[in-house]
Amino acid sequence: MFKNVIVRIPSKHVSDGITSANEGKPIYEKALVQHENYVSALTKAGVDVTVLKPEDEFPDSCFVEDVALCTKKCAIITRPGASSRREEAALPDMIKTLHHFYTHVEQIKEPGTIEAGDIMMVGDHFYIGLSARTNQEGANQMISILEKYGLSGETVPLKEVLHLKTGLAYLENNNLLVAGEFKNDPRFADFNKVEIDPDEAYGANCIWVNDYVLVPEGYPKVQKKIEALGYKVLIVDTSEFRKIDGGLSCLSLRF
Ligand code: GLY
User: Fold this and answer.
1) How many angstroms separate the CA atoms of 130 and 23, rounded?
2) Has residue 211 got a pLDDT over 90?
3) Pairwise CA distance, residues 136 & 166, whole Å
4) Which residue puts its alpha carbon closest to atom 3 of ligand 1?
């Protein structure tokens, strides 16, 4: 069960976020409304949501998932691989909030880079994508820290997607949404794999929050497959975040 979630209100310059999507620029006012609806859905799922103030000079700073890994034993502040995002991990209100919730707060150091959008938690084990944002050194440091707390990790080289959780979502109870390059990955052979069709690949980025699964609006096949597993679904429109390669998981830290 998750008790807490941390989010950050989108920057007024959210339209300048890093993107490969070619879907136009996010509309700030619409992003704010979608973010409020996201917080409402999380609240409905029974978690306490800590809402951090906007940091206007960082267009991608609403994607708080990338700047820390929150485990049940410790929090680990990351070192984002995107240079324009690196200082997001040092924002004082985020550090203070992590220290409020955790006795143990660790940190990834140079030359390691890692963004926690590349990390998928499955119980006490953490899959870490090696991507354009997360390097081997960052993954090694992360695994050493996890092991110090009795947790474990392994790496997963990425070929196409931005972050590991762009194409994978663990919904607990051994249920794993898989899209694209992960469908035939032997690392995930023992999961109950729910394959996501290429035309709904973005919809693979769902999040499990207690008895609920948050699903992005506009992915009916994904929604049906998740409902068929017995989960209660909450639909959240993320169209503005999609324009800058963001999704449901990137928008929060859940622990
Ligand atoms: N725009 C989200 C990211 O690229 O990190």
Assistant:
1) 26
2) no
3) 19
4) 18
